[in-house]
Amino acid sequence: MRNDFCIYILSHGRADRMHTIHTLERLGYTGNYYIIIDNEDETADQYFEKFGEEKVYQFDKRKMIKTFDVGDNFNNRNAVVFARNYCFQLAKKMKIKYFMQLDDDYTNFGLRFTKDGLFKHIHLNKSLDEILTAMIDYFDKCKNITCLAMAQDGDFIGGAGNVLGKNITMKRKAMNTMLCATNKPFNFLGLINEDVTAYVKHGLIGKLFFTISNLSVGQIQTQLNSGGLTDIYLDKGTYVKSFYTIMFCPSCVKIAKMGVAERRIHHKILWKYAVPKILREEHKKIF
Questions:
Q1: Count of H helices and E strands in the chain?
Q2: Any long-range contacts for 120-123 (C-beta under 8 Å, 24+ apart)?
Q3: What are phi and psi for residue 59, nearest 5 degrees?
Q4: Which of 94, 99, 143, 161 has the highest Cβ tally under 10 A?
């Protein structure tokens, strides 16, 4: 891997379940990675003991809370948004040009289409360096992109009949595997649902966040993996989670139901109100 890139693995209370590290090693990743924890993690010593001080970076949550809008007055800091915003400060300090934020519970990375463009889930095998390098090259050439991400396995429910399963495309969102650059900083906003709020709120002013449909990541189901964000999701529920984005973007986000067999509360983005529609200069009318 190129030396101006690294992976930041965001974790809390899971020193004994760092699935992402095992997945990176299994897929032959040769670049640098670092574990990001906060100073309110009661298991911090376990991280330092298991992975070493050179691999673990710890930040002060109370200092980070002053740098962006959490969107509430609950005095609750049990969320990943602080670590997400800290990554930009750390990358700048480490003189890293590109970095990717990963959660700690990834079990696989994969492709979603064959070379002929047919929909198929192909698990990666010892080729993660090549995939990440291609992502960085694309991100570097497309100067206007602020953040680039892989899709999640859940995005392909329905298989080839799914919107993302019909052909290789880009979707205007970015979650989980977020490739960022220190010269394109942005803030994640809100205590939870911070990734959705970021790509919608910044999209309102023309910043581009994209997900590549040909790449995907699989992870452990949230409610089955204690620690991390599981506790706050169980406590607050998806209604409150979704409403954070509505507070920041009331003109283009609302509460809706999603699912087929089991319906649940989720946010719904009205994209025709969410992002600028820019026409080519050739279509300008002269009056």
A1: 8, 12
A2: 121/156, 121/216
A3: -120, 165
A4: 99
Burial state string for 244-266 with b = 16 or more CB within 10 A and e = fewer than 16 = bbbebbeebbeeeeeeeeeeebe
Indicate the pTM of the whole model. Answer: 0.89
152 touches 175 (CB < 8 A) = yes
Q: Is 228 left (phi over 0), alpha (psi -120 to 50) or beta?
A: left
Contacts by 276-283, CB closer than 8 A, 24 or more apart: 276/204, 276/205, 276/206, 278/206
Q: What is the pLDDT of residues 240-285, one digit of tens each?
A: 899 999 999 999 999 988 766 666 788 899 999 998 887 788 887 7
The CA R_g of the chain, rounded to the nearest whole Å, is: 19
Burial 142-157, CB ≥16 within 10 A → b, else e: eeebbbbbbbbeebbe
What is the reported pLDDT for 77? 87
Write the CB contacts of 220 (distance below 8 Å, at least 6 apart in sequence).
19, 105, 107
Calpha distance 41→48 (Å, rounded): 12
DSSP 15-44: TT--HHHHHHHHTT--SEEEEEEETT-TTH
At which residue do the structure tokens 């101006």 appear?
4
Chain position carrying tokens 């009661």: 42
Domain 5-228 part of CATH 3.90.550.40 = yes
Question: Quick one: tokens of 285?
Answer: 């009318």
Residue 221 CB neighbour total at 10 angstroms: 9
